[in-house]
Amino acid sequence: MTVRGWNDLVDGLAYGGDYNPEQWPREVWDDDVRLMREAGVNLVSLAIFSWATIEPLEGQFDWAWLDEVIEKLDAGGVRIALATATASPPPWLTATHPEILPVTREGVVLHQGGRQAYRISSPVYREYATAMTRRMAERYGSHPALALWHVDNEIGCHIPDDFSPDATEAFRGWLQRRYGTLEALNEAWGTAFWSQRYGSFEHVLPPLPAPTFPNPTQQLDWRRYTSDVHKEYYLALRAVLREVTPEVPITTNFMIGTGNRHADYADWAPETDVVANDHYTRSHDPERHVELAFAADLTRGVAAGDPWLLMEHSTSAVNWQPRNRAKDPGEMVRNSLSHVARGADGVMFFQWRQSRAGAEKFHSGMVPHAGTDSAVWRNTVELGEHLQRLAPVRGSRVASSVAVVFDYTNLWAVELDSHPTNDLSYPDLVLDWHRAFFHEGVQVDVVPPQADLSGYDLVVAPNLYLADDERVANLTGVVERGGVFATTWFSGIVDAHDHIHLGGHPGAFADLLGIRTEEFCPLQQGERVGVLLDGVDAEGVRWTERTELRGASAHATYTDGVLVGLPAVTDHAVGDGHAWYVGTDLPGEGKRALVRTWLAQAGIEPVLADPQPGVEAVRRSGEGGSFLFVFNHTRGEVRVPATGTELLTGARVSGALTLPGGGSAVVHEDA
Ligand code: GLA
Ligand code: GLA
Asked: Which residue has the CA at smallest separation from atom 2 of ligand 1?
């Protein structure tokens, strides 16, 4: 039996949110469905945190309320992404089985009282969770309103790391499967160092607090194990759903963005029937729409270019940042449609009705505390109308000529301790390059290093410290095909075991780049060094290195400091291709100048000619035609070139589109 499409049961784009009716008296439920219809909601995520309501004591079930809610939703035409109800164990379970509780690195047991108080590797919890999943599947698996399974919730969100005895056991098993023999593990971990050689797998531990830096390969393998054990939990629940309901699509909500570090979502994605993501903007970030764009482009990259589902974001403020700002007028719509522009075929929120009690009562919802006479509700209705008008966009794709590489394994490796500098956050460094393209008005894909790169004319792989043969071969292929490839400082340094590529840096990329570095010269915080780039005075921060040309030419040189006159940026012509190296971190304008050079070399144009500051433009296209999304992140009116039908208003656009401050538009372009 084949699996249905995840959105076969919804018309057009999906729209809705997490629905937690158990937090409200019955009287509210009819009102909920009525308002969902008013807003055009066609999909809700249900029963995510319902276990304790369904089964308040072991073996005592109350399904009636959930049956009733499902009937009401169905009658209202709302389809359901039904959860497995396993995201948080009920109090009876943690009380009777405290051995399922997670443990921190410092050995602190995390108790019931918040949520998600389970250890991912616990065989006991696995048994209870799969049994609960089976009950949900057996009870509701053939319900006509069931569109999609939602496994657990943000797996690993609060407990990216568990150091319980179960975890130690599971980690040892994982290592035995990875290495086969102790010799292989000792070799990979470099245990000749500091008397770390293991004589038995039983002596191997997770990276617990240690007197000084724990073994780096142990740490890296722990991250790999952690990603795998979370995926394994997902797969265990998925297997039950697949068995009971073979035709119902299955997903779980990822947390792709700059914040998440515990899971390799590129590795998980093929195990879902649709990639679903949760994204929240960063209150403190004046360019939060750029971080959103990066996260959405990475989600599409993880989904190998297929349309995906935005499972959660917020209508306005969240409750968990230090200062939770409300969204500006127009911002929620821009955020939602920017996800759609970047490949989402559905927009959902946490949550439908803002909670009255509990830790998330100050988190916005689609129905706010203020009720329906409110800007948030009017925005909710407005977005629903927009999404209905955008139905023709469904299934179309984003085509980019530029790829920026984001690599989860590298994230774990490059951020390890005892490195030349601690002054780096890999997601933020990659985001900075994405930002440079964003400001040049160029559409990019953010892809894993193993992605098919054959369609790209320009590929940028920032800070790719971990460079094994497979990564190097795939990236070298870009240059061999006559494309432009660029990498940056602290790249090509180690193999998959975090062992140095000998013979000078950037190790695995040195020949391709036509350079050789003997020593790194990281900068102190606040230290800056002058760089002459394309005849313009730029600056380097964070990092410099003493680079010697071995075939490459210097594109930029240091103008002061100890490296004065030495190359800061190099270009190596290889056949028709180019391999670039950026040996320092170039803030702002320096990055943009370099990006312009690469774009010109690769012959890539922006989405709209003459991009304007604060104006975002993205194109999706498919059988239904070509759709130009434009967002005005400024407060003033802007005019951009476009011709076609503006879908949100139905207006004709001939030559130029005028957008008010904060506005959004989607032009179905004339063929
Ligand atoms: C996550 C969770 C939701 C909710 C939101 C709040 O995305 O999945 O249950 O807690 O955060 O932003
Ligand atoms: C100390 C230790 C050495 C080495 C150096 C590194 O001197 O004795 O083993 O770790 O620090 O600076």
From this structure: 154
pLDDT, tens digit, for every residue of 225-276?
Answer: 999 999 999 999 999 999 999 999 999 999 999 998 999 999 999 999 999 9
Taking a C-beta distance cutoff of 8 angstroms, is the pair 643, 670 a contact?
A: yes
Atom of ligand 1 nearest to the CA of 280: 12
Predicted TM-score (pTM) above 0.85: yes
Half-sphere exposure of 557 (CA within 13 A, CB side): 12
Residue 421 alpha carbon to ligand 2 centre in Å: 18
Q: How far is the CA of 350 from the centre of ligand 1 (A)?
A: 6
**Residue from 68, 247, 271, 312 carrying the catalytic annotation:** 312
Give CA 437 to chain center in angstroms. Answer: 18
The tokens of 91 are what? 């109090």
577, two tokens: 């291709």
What is d(CA 361, CA 358) in angstroms, rounded to the nearest whole number? 6
Catalytic residue status for 385: no
User: Domains in the chain, please, with CATH?
Assistant: 14-163+229-394 (3.20.20.80), 402-602 (3.40.50.880), 615-669 (2.60.40.1180)
Sign of CA dihedral 118, 121, 125, 128: positive
Question: Within a 10 A sphere around the Cβ of 542, how many other Cβ atoms?
Answer: 21
Question: 636: exposed, middle or buried (C-beta count within 10 Å: 0-12, 13-18, 19+)?
Answer: exposed
